[in-house]
Design goal:
single chain, 193 residues, mainly beta, 5-stranded mixed sheet, globular, F-box-assoc_interact_dom, F-box/kelch-repeat protein At3g06240 family
Length: 193
């Protein structure tokens, strides 16, 4: 089993929230705990949408930690009922779990690593794979309209030579460039066309 975590801000209650979800690959008896900082209390949370969720088979960079975006916490997961990799989200305002589809073009088994980011104020899905020369290939998709599956758009592609020590992942962005962070905590800018 795996435990995933999230931390965010519920602006409707002016309260910080910690979410802890226990996922089992074999047993659909998943459990979520929600901690409200102002009330200093845990709430046991059951939601049928958690019953079909497991942890994905791909390596997810900092995968046990959520991405906070748009009043929701997000994790990359796998729905065994639909046999699809999905983003599990928890809305802090209405205390509900829901799924966000990943880009249609992405088949996680083809990649070495993936992660979620915020790029240009949009939810972004990043993948890393190696090509036949062992160069790293980094793809980034952004969801231009949150929650609309057809709005996933491939934003940029970057090839990193196999002479480079490891992969790079996006750290932050502006309107026309992305700053990538390396495994050695160095930063590299990348312009977007």
């Amino acid at each position: 089993s795996t435990t995933i975590y999230g931390f965010g801000y519920d602006r409707s209650e002016d309260n910080y929230v910690v979410v802890q979800i226990y996922l089992s690959k074999c047993d659909p008896s998943h459990r979520a705990l929600v901690y409200f900082v102002n009330g200093a209390s845990w709430r046991d949370f059951e939601d049928d949408s958690l019953l079909t969720i497991t942890y994905p088979c791909i390596s997810v960079y900092q995968g046990s930690i959520s991405l906070y975006f748009g009043d929701s916490l997000h994790w990359i997961t796998f729905n065994w009922e639909t046999n699809a990799d999905v983003i599990l989200a928890y809305n802090l305002i209405d205390s509900k779990f829901y799924e966000v589809n990943i880009p249609s073009e992405v088949k996680l088994e083809d990649y070495t690593l993936c992660c979620l980011r915020i790029i240009r104020d949009c939810l972004a899905f990043c993948t890393v794979m190696r090509d036949e020369n062992w160069d790293y290939m980094v793809d980034i998709w952004e969801m231009k309209e949150y929650g609309v599956h057809t709005s996933w758009t491939k934003l940029t592609f970057m090839q990193v030579s196999n002479n480079f020590p490891g992969y790079m992942l996006p750290a932050c962005s502006s309107d026309d460039s992305i700053l990538f962070s390396t495994m050695k905590r160095e930063f590299w800018p990348h312009g977007m066309q």
